[in-house]
């Protein structure tokens, strides 16, 4: 299975930045996935012309209704998006998202026909306290949908996101092995088919070694996904 490279643009990108997605689509970026802000999804779908898969960074759990300012999974699919990220730690932190709420969003994303990238990860304090596995187990227990279809897990240690710090390769391997065990316990054989991404300060310099770690099926990239030059360098490392 070739590594999956996913870019999360977070709250970055204006109309002029669509040129970066066009550049990714035009030169060796086939197979990349990008989650631009909602405002750029329709334009991103057009310029990527199917070469780059476009997705949302979040969705509401409901299909429609009185939820001012929110976007449903059905709306993302309607724009031509192919996936949605749910449970990113910045949303858990900024919007008080719970595991149960993340699970509802994952179910909504799948129901809309999207692939779902479900993010989990421990804080620095939790890692220091030796709670990493307990935290990952609880997040999986509370937020996994009912089946493994169209599901991808992103292991993103909160303390590694946007900080320039990454876990050691042994720590990444241990976390991914643990997540794989939990997925197999939950979904049986299907749990072995779920791709597990690593996320947190991935750059062109460290992507190669991270992608060679056992059970790392790809990377979820924030800051280094904003330019075609940087993301294509990560893709090349894969
Ligand atoms: C992310 O946004 O999911 C992320 C991992 O960010 P960064 O690569 O900037 O650490």
Summarize the structure.
With 238 residues, the protein is an alpha/beta fold. It has helices at 18-26, 41-48, 73-79, 89-95, 99-111, 124-128, 132-143, 169-187, 207-211, 228-237, and strands at residues 4-8, 33-35, 53-56, 83-86, 115-120, 151-155, 195-199, 218-221.
Give the full name of the CATH homologous superfamily: Aldolase class I
What proportion of the residues form beta strands (DSSP E)? 15-25%
Tell me how many strands there are. 8
Residue-averaged pLDDT: 97
The succession of helices and strands, N to C, reads: EHEHEHEHHEHHEHEHEH
Taking the alpha carbons of the first and last residues, their distance comes to 12 Å
Can you summarize the main beta sheet?
8 strands, parallel, barrel
The number of domains is 1
Low-confidence stretches: none
Gyration radius (Cα, Å) is: 17 Å
What does the overall shape look like? globular
**CATH C-level:** Alpha Beta
* Major β-sheet strand ordering: 1-2-3-4-5-6-7-8
Which ligands accompany this protein? phosphoenolpyruvate
- What CATH architecture would you give? Alpha-Beta Barrel
Structural class comes to alpha/beta
